[in-house]
UniProtKB/TrEMBL annotation, chain A:
Transmembrane segments: none annotated. This is 2-oxoglutarate ferredoxin oxidoreductase subunit gamma. SUPFAM superfamilies: Pyruvate-ferredoxin oxidoreductase, PFOR, domain III. The keyword Oxidoreductase applies. NCBIfam families: PorC_KorC (TIGR02175). The keyword Oxidoreductase applies. Keywords: Oxidoreductase.
Automatic annotation (TrEMBL), chain B:
PANTHER family: SUBUNIT OF PYRUVATE:FLAVODOXIN OXIDOREDUCTASE (PTHR43088:SF1), SUBUNIT OF PYRUVATE:FLAVODOXIN OXIDOREDUCTASE-RELATED (PTHR43088). NCBIfam families: PRK07119.1 (NF005507). InterPro entries: 2-oxoacid_oxidoreductase, PFOR_II, Pyrv_Fd/Flavodoxin_OxRdtase_N, THDP-binding, Transketo_C/PFOR_II. This is 2-oxoglutarate ferredoxin oxidoreductase subunit alpha. It comes from Desulfofundulus thermosubterraneus DSM 16057. The lineage of its organism: Bacteria, Bacillati, Bacillota, Clostridia, Eubacteriales. Keywords: Oxidoreductase. Residues 246-339 form the Pyruvate:ferredoxin oxidoreductase core domain.
């Protein structure tokens, strides 16, 4: 198993923390992981991205230049990174915020209205976990249980009441891609 | 013991604390600011002192003072800040004071940018300040190795009474990897009979790099040279990666070496006999790593995040016996594994000369 996942979007969307959560979950499952952020002169509202590698064997390079999976949370990220995904790879697009389609024909593309689904759950801030749930359903990079366990370990106790909502967000994303007709597989 | 996920910059701080460092003086600069940030919280917990100086020049001279008083002490910065420290580093080397200096290298020259680079190799290994001196330079390539090498850094500084530089880059500082911290050990700092801790009726202890009489400075220089020769003989460190039977040997350190490991893996999958030498000590340069492979190796390819600095040391080592090629990206750009693979294929088997 080798997954090099690039997560990209606006600063403030939780792109970096979603990546950290994924890496943490991989570590809890005993896999080799690395997390690497873009760290330019970035700010809220600017672009941000991070690369997460999860592998059964030691990770030679932590730098994700040719992702096996790409999560795009905004339009500039799709335009910038679509071309980098390996052939046969996966692109997950937050269709709540991205109003264009992917042009690649040699990768699997899923459109996920992550913000709308998160709002239906009652909190727009779990959009990242909706799309993460979809990624995990499609790649099996780590289990949803490991993500939930990671939340329990990284969140301070007074935030633990948010864990069920996050779990629900992950499951909503996973369920969506289990029924590809509704996720507009491309 | 369970692993924890840690940022490289934080690992430098934790590694230093676990190595017995109790004093840090520094001034913030991207991409290493998480390190002083971490130590500002951590050092007071263990009875240490964190102090943000008024400038890098101030920081390195505080290091001189603390080291002179016998402390395990560290500073850190990046490119422009390290340039400001060069006078102090020369004085530390001249006065033979043990200390650790961290440089998380960014793009230069001048203000350059805050992206990862390896363009301070010359400055680190050839003596960035004035005078005939050497600084031991360690180049970790993973967060776990940072933890392990911080202990080595402080021990080497003490063993040889010499400044030790830990040279990383922005990527290494910013990335997170799982680390095993192990049990926290009680560190016994070796006795420092030379430290300026008060005369107490004994001999005068003067810590100085001034030798105004040329005959005396020559003797001091020769003494330092003997020390540097001993370090060169004893302390070369490197990692070998899939070197068996390699016809083309990549040479890279730090983040560039991580990328080159991926290059080696891809080449080996395609049946190309490619391996990697990863220098861990940049000074002393691990010349010993090259002798066992030079028989079988037909050529070397040095990959750096600069315009070609370590390649000069590889050429000195190989000394004309084999061709030594170079591939680099600079200005804060990273080599892309696919591009390096292409370069390897161009050279492999002697084409593309």
């Amino acid at each position: 198993m080798y997954e090099a996942i690039l997560i990209a979007g606006f600063g403030g969307q939780g792109v970096l923390s979603t990546g950290q959560l994924l890496a943490y979950a991989g570590m809890l499952e005993g896999k080799h992981v690395s997390w690497i952020p873009s760290y330019g002169p970035e700010m809220r509202g600017g672009t941000a991205n991070c690369g997460v590698t999860i592998s059964d064997s030691p990770i030679s390079s932590p730098v994700v230049t040719e992702p096996t999976s790409l999560i795009v949370m905004n339009r500039p990220s799709l335009e910038k990174f679509e071309g980098n995904v390996v052939p046969g790879g996966l692109i997950l697009i937050n269709s709540s915020l991205v109003d264009i389609k992917a042009t690649r024909k040699d990768v699997r593309v899923y459109y996920i209205p992550a913000n709308e689904l998160a709002e239906e759950l009652g909190n727009a801030r779990v959009a990242g976990n909706v799309i993460l749930g979809a990624l995990l359903e499609l790649t099996r990079a780590v289990s949803l249980d490991a993500v939930e366990k990671s939340l329990r370990e990284v969140l301070p106790a007074h935030r633990h009441k948010l864990i069920p909502l996050n779990r629900q967000a992950l499951e909503t994303g996973a369920a969506l891609v289990r029924r590809p007709a509704t996720a507009q597989a491309g | 013991m369970a692993k924890i996920l840690m940022k490289g910059n934080e690992a430098i701080g934790e590694g230093a604390v676990r190595a017995g460092c109790r004093y840090f003086f520094g001034y913030p600069i991207t991409p290493q600011s998480e390190l002083p940030h971490y130590l500002a919280k951590r050092l007071p917990e263990v009875g240490g002192v964190y102090l943000q100086s008024e400038s890098e020049t101030g920081a390195i001279n505080m290091v001189y003072g603390a080291a002179g008083a016998g402390a395990r002490v560290m500073t850190s910065s990046s490119g422009p800040g390290i340039s400001l420290m060069q006078e102090g580093i020369s004085y530390l080397a001249g006065a033979e004071l043990p200390c650790v200096i961290v440089n998380m290298i960014r793009g230069g020259p001048g203000l350059g940018n805050i992206a990862p680079a390896q363009s301070d190799y010359f400055q680190a290994t050839k003596g960035g300040g004035h005078g005939d001196y050497r600084v031991i330079v360690l180049a970790p390539a993973s967060v776990q190795e940072i933890i392990d090498l911080m202990r080595v850094a402080f021990d080497l500084a003490d063993r040889y009474r010499n400044p030790v530089m830990v040279a990383g880059d922005g990527i290494l500082g910013q990335m997170m990897e799982p680390v095993e911290l192990g049990e926290e050990e009680e560190i016994q700092i070796p006795p420092r009979p030379w430290a300026a801790t008060g005369r107490m009726g004994g001999e005068k202890k003067l810590i100085n790099s001034l030798y105004i009489v040329p005959e005396e400075l020559e003797q001091h220089n020769l003494k330092l040279a003997r020390k540097y020769a001993l370090i060169t003989e004893r302390e070369q460190r490197w990692e070998e990666y899939r070197l068996g039977g390699a016809k083309l040997v990549l040479v890279a350190f730090g983040t560039a070496a991580r990328i080159c490991k991926a290059v080696v893996d891809r080449c080996r999958e395609e049946g190309l006999a490619v391996g990697l030498i990863r220098p861990i000590t940049l000074w002393p340069f691990p010349q010993k790593a090259f002798e066992p492979v030079i028989e079988e190796a037909e050529r070397f390819l040095v990959v750096e995040m600069n315009l070609g600095q370590m390649v000069e040391d590889v050429r000195l080592t190989v000394n004309g016996r084999r061709p030594v090629h170079f591939y680099g990206r600079c200005g804060g750009m990273l080599p892309v594994a696919a591009d390096v693979v292409r370069e390897v294929k161009k050279l492999y088997g002697g084409e593309g000369q």
